[in-house]
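Q: Second attempt. The first request was missing the SMILES, so the protein and adenosine-5'-triphosphate are both included now.
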Amino acid sequence: MLKLSNINQFYGQTHILWDIDLSLAKGKCTCLMGRNGVGKTTLVQSIMGNLKIKKGTIQFKDTDITHKSIETRAYMGIGYVPQGRQIFSQLTVEENLRVGLAAKRSRAAKIPDLVYSLFPVLKEMRNRRGGDLSGGQQQQLAIGRALVIEPSLLILDEPTEGIQPNIVHEIGSIINRLNHELGLTVLLVEQKLPFIQMVADDFYLLDRGRNIANGCLAQLTPNLIKNYLTV
Ligand SMILES: Nc1ncnc2c1ncn2[C@@H]1O[C@H](COP(=O)(O)OP(=O)(O)OP(=O)(O)O)[C@@H](O)[C@H]1O
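A: Got both inputs this time. The predicted holo structure:
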């Protein structure tokens, strides 16, 4: 589904990511993990085309997308929930969802029923401003906005950051539904182990810009957790 080969990334002269190979299995939830500052967001930004790739390649559904635009990635079915949610606080909930629709080719595109059925609170609050929503509701809006293009791959960057525990569980259930019932492939950046255990099939562990371990979740040993994750 998504295949990264030998990705290297830089900020100016600083080498941030080193020779990253990553392959996502279709229909699985893969967790990209590692402590603060190891390069998770940089990798996701590289996948999304927000950072230009200087070395390495990215394939999505057997097409080379390494140098394709952000818009092309959306047309091809990659949905993205950025770190910090990035809700437009002055726009209504519905307007925020419509921003996501701009990435669809069809002019007649409408917000899919799925979004409001997954997140009834967004329907109830569709005329309220994004800035009036709680953190958990904003996170639901950010996920809903990524889903309006009906993606086949959904990438979420730390969706539980700053969210109350009961809402974290709700977000985990939604990810499981998207993954198991609708067959979406999910790439999740996450550090919280209980949440990872709730949703992930596979993992990639980064440390100082390098992939130091990957496999199915059962292969995430206590030693790896102790040495490379903040628990
Ligand atoms: N725009 C930037 N310019 C220069 N350096 C950056 C920039 N963004 C991130 N960095 C640096 O690159 C490294 C990787 O950062 P990145 O945000 O990818 O890590 P992360 O694993 O996502 O961390 P976190 O969990 O805190 O979000 C860090 O050392 C960070 O300080």
